[in-house]
Every structure is written in structure tokens, then in C-alpha cells.
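Sorry, explain these C-alpha cells?

***
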Amino acid sequence: MRERPLSPHLQVYRWPLSMALSILHRGSGLFLSLGAVFLVWWLHSVSRGGAAHEAFLACVNSWFGRLLLIGWTLAIMFHLLNGIRHLVWDAGWGFEKPQTEATGWAVVFGTLILSAIVVLLAWRALP
């Protein structure tokens, strides 16, 4: 009996950058949806005022709340930049491998730079 080769496992297969960015794009969209719930909580706490808003601020100012805010900043910047990349693809440009790699890395570095700027500006504005 002749054994057929097995498909490579995910641990063996080298992920192309575009594949990783595609998966992250879906994940960031899901994470941003969860952030919308957080936004609704904030708006609800503002409308109720007093103790409700204090509870929200206590959550946001905790280490976990700040970690979530940093995560949402990264997610929105990534989703925005990768969405622009997809719009460029929809226009018919950027399908060659060098352009795909270059725009992929531009999304990664742009995400990190823009997120750092937003986080630093937000931290400076905090009391």
C-alpha cells in the first residue's frame, strides 16, 4: 500500500503576511463590536450620572480597563488601515506580491505608530 502525503499542519506551514492580516482583520472587527458594548455602557452611565458614571470611570481607570482601551485603539487603527488597503485592492491595485508585502507591513507599522500617538495623547489628557 502506498502512503499519500498528508497536508501540512498549521504549525509546519509558514503563514503569509496577507493571511495573518486577514485573520487579524476579522478578529479586530469582532473586538471592535465588543467595544461598542463598552461605548453603550459609557453613554448609559453618562445619562444616569452620579454613581453609575463613577462606576464606569472606576472600571476605565483600572489596569484592566486601560488595557482594554489600548487594545481597542490598536484594533480600530488596524481595522481602519487594513480597510483602506482592501479599498485599494477593490480599485484593482496592489495584487502583485511585492506590493502586497509592502502594504501589509505598512498596515502593521502604521497601526503601531498611530496607536502609540493616540495612547500618548490620551494619557496626557487624563487628570
Remarks:
- The chain has one domain: 20-125.
- The helical segments are 17-48, 50-60, 63-90, 97-125.
